[in-house]
Amino acid sequence: MPVSRVSRKGLTTIPSKVRKALNLEEGDLLVWEVDPKRRTAIIRVLKTPFKQLKGKYRDTELVYEKVEESADKEILGEAGARTGA
User: Fold this and answer.
1) Is 51 among the domain residues?
2) Three-state SS at 37
């Protein structure tokens, strides 16, 4: 079972076996759901919105900032729906 240590600043490294199994890439978001009674956490992966949208539209007026804003709204909605928020 992969293990990682939490640093003084609360940072940790996700073990490579876990990153590969979840197909994690730079920019992906991790949504944390915590059950304090059981002292467990469920972590869900939300893929980078830009990579999902890349090449999808050919509109020259559609700039990254507009796409990012729309994607952020979608991600926050999806994260809330998944966690029941």
Assistant:
1) yes
2) coil
Helix, strand, coil content of the chain in percent (nearest 5): 35, 15, 45
Q: How far apart are CA 29 and CA 25, in angstroms?
A: 9
Task: Name the phi and psi angles at 71, rounded to 5.
Answer: -65, -40
* Separation between Cα atoms, residue 1 and residue 71, nearest integer Å: 34
Question: What is the extent of the structural domain holding 75?
Answer: 16-83
- Residue 68 tokens read as 């990012």
Q: Could you tell me the two tokens for 78?
A: 């999806």
Q: What is the pLDDT of residues 13-58, one digit of tens each?
A: 999 999 999 999 888 889 899 999 999 999 999 887 666 566 655 6
Which residue shows structure tokens 């949208």? 53
